[in-house]
Amino acid sequence: MSLDTLKSKLPDYAKDLKLNLGSMVNETILTDQQKYGCLLACAHAVGEPQTLRALEAEARSKISPEAVTAAKAASAIMGMNNVYYRSTHLFTNETYTTLPAKLRMNVIGAPGIEKADFELFALAVSAVNGCGMCLDAHESVLRKHGMTTEQVQAGVRIASVVNAVARVMAAEAALQPEDA
């Protein structure tokens, strides 16, 4: 499925999402690798089939195979980390924040692409997954790599649009009559 097909499948009530998805693709504050990597990482994080297929096809036509793999890796590792670190933050017993995670996270140290780009993918997935602790950690690393506030915001904007598109697509699919 193409990105245009995905946009055409969004219902009229989600017109703003169609427009925002187009705006995200035309975003110029991020490189293509940053933009399409965020789109793909977030689509993987949400996992809605039509959104995922369209954004994966779009990303594969715009970024390197290494960047595609890194976007998927960011989604995978943050799927784990966001649950773990969000939980340690939510416990009223602060002891959990002092314990070692004992979770493998090697891809964060060697993502196969520029560190800042991978961190942006991880930040975007953390926005989708709602982990404030991870958002703060990745934003700090991005700022140290020279990324501007506007670039960080663009990653979060992409996350919000992909999340909303995927949720609408899932809701509309759920309303379709079941096959007999």
TrEMBL record:
Q: Which residues form the active site?
A: C131 (proton donor), C134 (cysteine sulfenic acid (-soh) intermediate)
List the Pfam families: CMD
Out of the domains of life, which is the source?
Bacteria
Keywords associated with the record:
Antioxidant, Disulfide bond, Oxidoreductase, Peroxidase, Redox-active center
* Carboxymuconolactone decarboxylase-like domain boundaries: 100-176
Task: Please state the Enzyme Commission number of this protein.
Answer: 1.11.1.28
Q: Which family would the database say this protein is a member of?
A: Belongs to the AhpD family.
The protein, known as: Alkyl hydroperoxide reductase AhpD
